Amino acid sequence: MLASLHVKNLALIDEEEIIFSKGLNILSGETGAGKSIILGALHLSLGDKASKDFLRDSDSEAFVEAVYLVDDEKTKEALRDLGVEPYDDEVIMSRKITESRSVAKINGEQVPAAKMKEVGDILLDIYGQKEHQSLLNTHKHMEFLDEFAKNQIGDLKAQIAESYKNYRALMQELEDAKKSDISKEREIVLLDHEINEIESANLKSGEDEELEDEYRRLSNFSKTMDHFQRAHEAMSGEGGASDALSSAISDLRYIESIDEKAADLLSMLNDADSIISDFNRELSSYMADTSFDAGRFNEVEVRLNEINRLKDKYGPSIEIILEELKARQEKKAKFESFDEYLSELKKKVDDATAELESLSGKLSDIRHKAAKELAVKMQAAMSDLNFLNCEFDMELNRLDHFTDNGVDDGQFVISTNPGEPLRPLKDIASGGEMSRIMLAIKTVLASDGGIDTLIFDEIDAGISGRTAQAVSEKLSTVAANHQVICITHLPQIAAMADTHFLIEKSVENGHTISGIKKLLGDETIDELARMLGGSAITEAVMTNAKEMKDMAKSYKERA
Questions:
Q1: Using CA atoms, how far apart are residues 468 and 551, in angstroms rounded to an integer?
Q2: Which of 263, 458, 488, 538 is deepest in the core (most CB within 10 A)?
């Protein structure tokens, strides 16, 4: 259940903390008082998109924190599957929002907003003012049915999705194979040509890099030799480094016996003379043995041109060209045994079709059985919501093709008046009726287990009188086994509250703020009177409010 909600610096709210209780929690207040902000704060804590417009004070961060108590082992296991471990049976979901970014955390660990949504789907269900419009979409009806039958379905839908993926891949392969069958002879001729072209080149990995280095040396031979010659002359020619070094050695030998330093320096020059002599000898030998081989240069150029032509055609490197060769060899082998390949592929398609048909058939059987059970429970729930003499059913049909969700298509059908035929829900239900039908669906799904907390935002849209009383009684019944949080304008619903919160606007220091407080004792009567009488709170209105609260108390005691 939702234990508490802490909201700071959000829209009209400065800072508030709401401590929720079990049973039916009612939030009421004047239009525009800020009830929608509370719901918006909850949505933010569940990972909804955050906007800097939510900030009450742009210089401060907005903060929302929702604390959930989780004592159900199935819920804990579902949370663990998402990598969330309840601590002391608590899950804390928080959101910080600034002008530039927002940070989402679960139990203090930063997480992406998408994970917040996944966790939120396990912990609570929010029914917004516009959600009943989703009943106009028949695909939503199938979702409700599958949710109702989820314990029977288990992982069957996941198996079907995987089987369908395999089936579609095989069907595409078969379609491509049939097209290839028409042109396979032409394909084999082309493959033969390409295979022979690559094989005849006798490519070796790394060969291109070695050839490019050799080509670079050969194409620059004249320039290279010119620089070698100049270097040789600089070191060994007349007036070159060798002559200068010999002159320096002679001078130092002359004074070697006079100055000790001369002996040290002479030793260094002798080493240098030895190095230069080795250099001159090595360079002379290299130049004498090196000559330009025009024939080799032509061979290298021709080979590189051939390799580059193959690169242009098959890929940017020898390694990729060789991979392309292997792929063509395999493709040719497949074509040469094409009839066998096609036969095996058709068998795979048949097996995949049979598997998908079997899995889809199992799901369809579960759905048909569940649809009947859902119809019975929905009719009872709708009767509780003042749908008198109403018939409700679900119409299931088989599609003419497979999908990743089986082979079923369906929609809710309803008759709201005796003698009228069942017709699609979207064709006959009004907005107020849609709202109550959605409440019936939510209560049926909730009674079947699963989510512990249900939140209804103005479920009272388009209803009044006896119907409003029926809705309040239904909410109270659901609240006996689930935590229900309801935003309402109707006193009949508010009177049924186990815990009642009032949201009010006030002006402080020239700024409008929204505050929320838990009503105690006679404060609940005062709020019911306001909801009944508006600005004119007469003694009769107060009496009516007290009677309404007493009647609600009496109903809950009898239930």
A1: 14
A2: 488
pTM of the shown model = 0.63
281, two tokens:
């000898």
What is the spatial distance between Cα 507 and Cα 528, in angstroms, rounded to a whole number?
24
**The pLDDT of residue 502:** 92
Q: Are 397 and 383 in contact (CB under 8 A)?
A: no
Q: What is the DSSP string of 318-383?
A: HHHHHHHHHHHHHHHHHHHTHHHHHHHHHHHHHHHHHHHHHHHHHHHHHHHHHHHHHHHHHHHHHH
Q: What is the C-alpha to C-alpha distance for residues 392 and 394, in angstroms, rounded to an integer?
A: 7
Residue 351 and residue 7: Cα distance in Å, rounded?
57
Contact, 331 vs 373, CB < 8 A? Answer: no
- The rounded Cα 263 to chain-centroid distance in angstroms is 82
The band of 449, judged by pLDDT with boundaries at 50, 70 and 90, is: low
**In the 8-state DSSP scheme, what is residue 452?**
S
d(CA 228, CA 213): 19
DSSP letter string, 266-280: HHHHHHHHHHHHHHH
| Span 226-280, pLDDT tens digits | 787 778 777 876 777 887 888 888 888 878 777 778 888 888 888 888 888 888 8
- Token digits of residue 404: 């990743």
Q: In whole angstroms, what is the distance from residue 319 CA to residue 316 CA?
A: 9
Residue 8's φ and ψ, nearest 5 degrees, are: -140, 135
Highest-confidence segment of 100-109, 149-158, 270-279: 149-158
pLDDT interval class at 44 (50, 70, 90): confident
Structure tokens at 165: 């993926």
Residue 315 structure tokens? 């890929």
Mean pLDDT of the region 539-553: 90
- What's the CA gap between 81 and 480, in Å, rounded? 29
